Amino acid sequence: MSEAEHGKKLVLSEEQALEIITFLVSSAEICLHEPIYYGTFRLVDAASRMMGLMLENNPEASGEFFQAYKAAIDANKTSMMWDREAYYDFLRRIPAAAASELKRVRELGDSEGGVS
Amino acid sequence: MTDSSLLVNSEALLGMMRKRRVVRQFTDEPVTIGDLQKMVEAGRWATSGGMRYPHRFLVVRDPKRISLVRAASPGMIWEPPALIILMIETQQAKEDSMNVEHWNVHSIDIGTAAMSMTTMAQSLGLGSCPVTSFSKAAVSAMLELPSHLSPEFILILGHPLPFKRVVNPNAPKPITVRDLTYWERAGQHDPEPGK
C-alpha cells in the first residue's frame, strides 16, 4: 500500500468518533455560557483528543505529523490560562502546519492518479 | 470559652492552604476507598444553608465510567483515577420550596462541600481540580442519573503527576489578599490603625 493510499485509510472507530462527537457537542453547549475565548480552547483540545484516538490506530500517512502536532497543541493549549497573548499567537500559527500536511497528502494522491 | 479540642494550628492550616494548587494530571495509582470515604465525610461536614443538605455525592472509580464522563466534560483535560460528582437532589429542593433557578444557596452548599473535600484531598497527599465545564445533560445520560439528581460540579482527584512549575513572565500579577479585601467600606483596602 502506498503512502497515498494510507492517507485514505479510516483511522477512527465508530466508538472513537462518538467520543469526539460527544466532546464537540458538549463543548458547543457550554460555549453558551463560558467566556468566548474558551471556545477556541475547546476546538484545539478536540483536535488533540481526536489525534490521540487516531494514533491508537496507526495512521500511516500522517502518523508522525499527528504525533508532533498533538504534542505541540498539548504543550501550548493551557497557556490560555496564564498568557493569553502567547496563546492567541499560537492559535494564529498552527493552522498553516495542518494545511501543509493536508496539501502534502492530497498531492501524494494526485501524483498517483488519485486513490479513492 | 473556646473548646480547645476544636483548635488546630492556624499558621499550619494557612500554610497548607497557601500551598494548595490545582492538579490536573495524575499518576495511574488508584485512590483508595478509605481516602474517598474521608473526602465525602469532609463534604458531609461542610456548612449547608438551613441544614437542608440538598446535595449528593457520586464517587466514580471505574475507568470506563470516568472515560465516558470525560467525553462530555471539556473541562477535564486528562483522565483522573477517581472523581466525585456533586449533585443537587432537585426533588428534595422542591419539597423544601427552594427555587433552584433563582436562589443559589444550593450552589453555595456545593461549593462549601467541594472546598472541604479539596482540603481533605490535600491532607491525604492527593491532588484535585474542580471541573464545571461539562454538559449536565450528557453527564446525566452517561451515568444514567435519575432525573431528580442534577450534576453541578465534578472534583477530579488522584496522586499528582510530578511536573516542574515554570513561572511565565507574562502571567498576570498574583492576586493578593489585600486586592480582594475591603475594611469597613468598599474600596478601603487596609484596616484603620488602632481600631
Overview of this protein structure:
The complex is a heterodimer of chains A (116) and B (195). Chain A is mainly alpha-helical. Chain A is 70% helix and 0% strand. Chain A has one domain. Chain A is globular, with a radius of gyration of 16 Å. The mean pLDDT of chain A is 90. Helix content of chain B is 34%, strand content 15%. Classes of the chains: A mainly alpha (116), B alpha+beta (195). At the A-B interface, α2 and α3 of A face loops of B.
* Percent helix of chain A: 55-70%
Given as residue ranges, the uncertain stretches of chain A (5+ residues, pLDDT < 50) are: none
Tell me the distance between the termini of chain B: 24 Å
Sheet with most strands of chain B: 4 strands, antiparallel
Strand content of chain A: under 5%
H and E string of chain B: HHEHEHHEHEH
Structural class, from helix and strand content of chain B? alpha+beta
- What is the N-to-C order of secondary-structure elements of chain A (H for helix, E for strand)? HHHHH
The profile of the biggest β sheet of chain A is: none
- Oligomeric description of these chains: heterodimer
What number is the mean pLDDT of chain A? Answer: 90
CATH topology of chain B: NADH Oxidase
Q: Tell me, what's the shape of chain A?
A: globular
Number of domains of chain B: 1
Spell out the CATH superfamily of chain B: NADH Oxidase
Strand arrangement in the largest pleated sheet of chain B: 1-2-4-3
Mean pLDDT of chain B: 92
| Text of the CATH class of chain B | Alpha Beta
